Amino acid sequence: MKVSGNPVRLRHPAGVVVDVLPFNEMTSFDSDMVRFGPAFASFNLKGLHEVYHFGTDEISFEEDHRYKVTTPESIILLKFLAYEDKPEWRQKDLEDIGMLLKYYFDLNDRDIYDNHNDLFKEERELESISAQVIGRKIRQSLLSNNALLNSFKGILEKHSRDLSSTPISILSRQMSKPAEEVSSLLLEIREGLWRSVKFFDGSSISWGLFREFGRSQNVNARFL
């Protein structure tokens, strides 16, 4: 691997690109400047602390090498936040979001069938189901930061309202879908953010209360 012109990006000779995210203690700094080796990179840190703790999977290679890898839904969150920070420079992020939305079900079908099968009770497109799952998982990552959760909700609502906006246009082109369908998918993600948790005995609880004990308890619950 070698460092590309972007100091947070590594490029393999075979063409594989790996973006290195400033996780852990670096994300607690009240600054947007992060040092990578000899260089400083202007980097929007919003959301990275939450993703590091609640939005990564661990992978291993040959048992000796273990890495935290950002989940697809966390990448969607971070790319929306990055675009919102510098929309004139980050349109490529929207293209990446479009590709992730388009193929999310194919990448996560086993998890969706096993843990989100309530979404199949109503007849709907697989991309619609995927969008709600994305919202649910982003919600889990942002439980500790209600302000950021509300901010992300506002981003989704803003872009879903304007069918002629740049985000809708780029997502529509990338997903080969009409603007109306793309707008609906953004609203499905928002819906996933706010669905309540319902227990099998019929009782329900708000996400705000569930947050206080859900991470430390083996709760027998499902989303509705």
What report would you give on this structure?
Helix content is 50%, strand content 16%. The protein is α+β, with helices and mostly antiparallel strands and 224 residues long. The protein has a domain at 71-223. The strands form four sheets. Strands 1-2-3 form a three-stranded antiparallel β-sheet, with no helix packed on it. Helix 5 (146-161) runs antiparallel to helix 7. The N and C termini lie far apart (45 Å). Mean pLDDT is 79; it is low at 1-5 and 196-224.
Number of strands: 10
Strand order of the largest sheet: 1-2-3
H/E element string?
Answer: EEEEEHEEHHHHHHEEHE
C-alpha Rg (nearest Å): 18 Å
Percentage of residues in helical conformation: 40-55%
- The share of residues in extended strands comes to 15-25%
